[in-house]
Design a protein that fits this description.
CATH class of the largest domain: Alpha Beta
Structural class: alpha+beta
Number of domains: 2
Number of strands: 24
Strand order of the largest sheet: 3-2-4-1-10-9-11
Number of helices: 19
Shape: elongated
Largest sheet: 7 strands, antiparallel
Helix content: 25-40%
CATH architecture of the largest domain: 4-Layer Sandwich
CATH superfamily of the largest domain: Aminohydrolase, N-terminal nucleophile (Ntn) domain
Strand content: 15-25%
Length: 491
């Protein structure tokens, strides 16, 4: 069932030098399931009876627990001491094609190579057209396949240099895991749009999109892969217990971390961009309360509720700041979320939307009735789900309903890996950023968002200029092939 939120990107995971590689990758992908729910896959490296390196692959549509439900897949098929895995939500490439499920595997003149990618390559169409004109044949519609062709067609003889050369041609966002016959390579674009972390379990090294994938495996977090860094893990790294690292470019780039990782995407128990996500969401809630408080008109207690689960931590910060500022308030569980939805009977039009919201959420009437209620949410995209939630809460007969959003209005599409709908479908764009019109559409007593400046207060200590806010401001840090992006929304 679709809820009106920006779609999470993809999750990548990799491990080198562990006999339990496939199982560790399975649990890592399970922890990263929030980053992609359409499909997943794992590739492992092993030796056959002739002592020749082979890559073992299993991938399919569905959740991690569904795709790897048969224990034989992990124990008998995905054998080997190294692996990479990928959770997919399609931002480029048709979500209907199984060919687009990663990791992708190729065999070229230097052997086997597999790749898993999180982000969007903004010049993919230009590169793809050039490669096709040179005779390349593409098997998928994914931008990730461009990277494979660039590596395979390189005239260099050193594999790491081939990968570096290929990545230097890319524009946009990429956090990548590459498995070769003797190495695990992790790389991040020079702006660091997407997170990527380095960890350690026993004597083996792990890379993952978020640190929560280390926690489930009882692995230690070492550090984040730096923007513009290529990390090389091989037998020598295992023996010396030290990874190798080279720079993607000698040029100096200003980081442009995606601030939506803090607002919504990353799990609150993860550490990304130098901070605990939980801490950042509480901070967003506090800033939201300081600048956009709600007071009961009769002096009664204000009831603060979250839209579970992504805004839980932010709502906690919001209510605590209200109390700190002398506003009588209480954090309550006013919405109960069902975690056991599965497929739902398809209803047409408006009725379908209302049924979907009632299936996923129910109200605690005793908490809301006769009260001034503040709904704290992290974002509003189309506004359709928010409108139905307000209608649901209104059925509990509250005194007033106020909506507070811990991000600015989303006015522009993202070109770096987030999947928003087309510009015309964004509620903020539809109403020209007019908060009053959006308030009337949602039928709430008041609606207030964080401004971009208020949002950036949350990252002041890390440098306001180090974060990408293009989906709010329309100011993109890199050149974008808009023809390519138009294709994405038409797929």
């Amino acid at each position: 069932m679709k809820i009106d939120k920006p779609k999470c990107l993809c999750g990548v995971f990799g491990i080198f030098g562990n006999s339990n590689a496939s199982v560790i990758t399975y649990y890592g992908l399970h922890a990263l399931q929030h980053r992609g729910q359409e499909a997943c896959g794992i590739v492992t490296k092993s030796l056959n009876k002739k002592n020749k390196t082979v890559f073992n692959v299993h991938k399919n549509e569905g959740l991690v627990s569904e795709v790897f439900s048969d224990p034989k897949i992990l124990n008998d098929v995905l054998i080997g001491d190294s692996a990479i895995g990928h959770n997919r939500y399609s931002t480029t490439g048709s979500s209907e094609s199984k060919k687009n499920i990663q990791p992708f595997v190729v065999n070229y003149r230097l052997g086997n190579l597999a790749i898993a990618h999180n982000g969007n390559i903004t010049n993919a169409k230009v590169l793809r057209d050039e490669l096709v004109n040179e005779g390349a044949i593409f098997q998928t519609t994914s931008d990730t396949e461009v990277v494979l062709h660039l590596i395979a067609r390189s005239k260099l003889d050193d594999q790491v240099e081939q990968i570096k050369e290929a990545l230097q041609k890319l524009e946009g966002a990429f956090s990548i895991a590459i498995l070769t016959e003797d190495k695990l390579i992790a790389a991040r674009d020079c702006f660091g749009f997407r997170p990527l972390c380095l960890g350690k379990k026993d004597n083996s090294f792990i890379i993952a999109s978020e640190t929560c994938a280390f926690d489930v495996n009882m692995a230690d977090f070492i550090r984040e892969v730096e923007p513009g860094e290529i990390v090389i893990i091989d037998k020598e790294a295992i023996e010396e217990q030290k990874v190798k690292s080279i720079k993607l470019s000698e040029d100096i780039f200003e980081s442009k971390h995606c601030i939506f990782e803090y607002i919504y995407f990353s799990r609150p128990d993860s550490f990304v961009f130098g901070n605990n996500v939980d801490k950042m969401r509480r901070r967003l809630g506090k800033i939201l309360a300081s600048n956009h408080p709600v007071v009961d008109k009769d002096g009664d207690k204000v009831i603060v509720i979250s839209v579970p689960d992504s805004s839980n931590t932010c709502a906690l910060g919001y209510q605590r700041q209200l109390e700190k500022d002398g506003i009588n308030s209480k954090l309550e569980i006013g919405l109960i979320r069902s975690h056991y939805i599965g497929r739902t009977f398809i209803q047409p039009g408006q009725e379908k939307r209302e049924v979907n919201v009632r299936i996923k959420f129910n109200i605690v009437k005793g908490v809301l009735e006769g009260r001034t209620v503040v709904i704290v949410d992290d974002s509003v995209v189309r506004g359709t789900t928010s409108k139905q939630l307000v209608k649901l809460i209104r059925s509990a007969d509250p005194k007033e309903i106020h909506f507070r959003i811990s991000s600015p209005p989303i006015m522009h599409p993202c070109y770096y890996g987030m999947d928003f709908p087309s510009r015309e479908e964004l509620i903020a764009n539809k109403y020209g950023g007019d908060i009053n019109k959006m308030r009337d559409y949602l039928k709430v007593d008041s609606l207030e968002y964080l401004s971009i400046d208020e949002l950036l207060q949350s990252v002041e200590e890390d440098g306001k200029d180090n974060f990408c806010t293009a989906c709010f401001s329309g100011v993109y840090p890199t050149e974008v092939d808009f023809a390519f992006k138009k294709e994405i929304y038409e797929q």
